[in-house]
Write a structure and sequence with these properties.
Blueprint: E1 2-7, H1 11-20, E2 26-33, H2 44-47, E3 57-59, H3 63-70, E4 74-77, H4 81-93, E5 97-100, H5 107-120, E6 123-126, H6 132-147, E7 152-159, H7 169-182, E8 193-198, E9 204-211, E10 216-223, H8 227-240, E11 245-248, H9 249-252, H10 255-264
């Protein structure tokens, strides 16, 4: 049984909690929210609008005490990047593995998370692009970039109006992966243009436009429900349990091997995700 604690219980965090409660091999032992929140001390069931679950909500100010008391194997973080950076140091020191689905990190932040995993030998899955579908889209876009390196690539991403970071972490990652693939033939890679939109209640949509002189290809992914994030988080928890090191969702889903298989033998490739 994997003991899991949840950091951040907003809309996505609550959806993740519901999915975690359905897993036979995962025991959700606690939830952590920001200091001063009215949720502190409540039973998580009250937030999820169900019966009492015996799962307490704690303040992030009591993080070390929470770890000593609950002894989680893995923490799933869907808070905000500032909270993540403050908490990651404590989790790493105390050998708690992390699945980070939060977005908005700088390059220095990401390097810092990588360094923590190396210094303290805990496991971190950094996954601002946590859904299985969007990672499949990323793989398909990289394959297209390997084949169509004379085409122009553009990314359009749309999220709800309350999302603070723009472009999204997924769009930035997608752009970097396409740029690398376009440069695989030794030519200078092109810079990928990203257009961002923040409107209404859109959960998340990413589109890649691949445009040549005579035709166009579109690859897109849209999340209809935050349950897509939750299912990705469950896969990441199962992957990182008892591991050490720094990983991304491409490692969780073994997409690097799928891409390698494609490059080495492009006939009859089957995606097994």
């Amino acid at each position: 049984m994997i003991k899991v604690c949840l950091l951040g219980i907003g809309r996505t965090g609550q959806q993740i909690a519901n999915v975690l409660l359905e897993q036979e091999n995962i025991n959700l032992v606690g939830a952590i929210c920001s200091p001063g929140s009215s949720k502190i001390g409540m039973d998580l069931g009250n937030i999820l609008r169900t019966s009492n679950l015996g799962i307490k909500i704690y303040s992030v100010d009591d993080l070390e005490e929470v770890i000593f008391t609950l002894k989680p194997d893995v923490v799933i973080d869907f808070s905000n990047y500032e909270a993540t950076m403050k908490c990651a140091n404590i989790f790493s020191k105390m050998k708690v593995n992390m699945v980070i689905g939060t977005t908005g990190f700088s390059e220095d932040n990401i390097k810092g998370l990588h360094s923590l995993s190396q210094k303290y030998h805990n496991g971190i899955v950094f996954a601002p692009n946590i859904t299985v579908g969007v990672n499949t889209m990323m793989l398909l876009s990289k394959i297209a970039a390997n084949i169509l390196n004379n085409y122009d690539f553009q990314i359009i991403e749309t999220h709800h109006k309350h999302k603070k970071d723009s472009p999204s972490g997924t769009a930035l990652k997608l752009g970097k992966e396409i740029e690398k693939a376009l440069g695989n033939d030794g030519t200078k890679s092109k810079e990928i243009t990203i257009s961002s939109h923040r409107v209404g209640g859109v959960v998340g949509k990413h589109e890649v436009l691949i445009v040549g002189e005579d035709d166009k290809i579109e690859i897109s992914h849209e999340s209809f429900s935050r349950k897509a994030f939750a299912m990705g988080a469950v896969k990441a928890v199962n992957f990182i349990h008892k591991k050490s090191g720094y990983f991304e969702m491409s490692n969780v889903l073994n997409l690097n091997q799928v891409l390698s298989d494609y490059i080495n033998d492009s006939d009859d490739i089957v995606l097994k995700i």
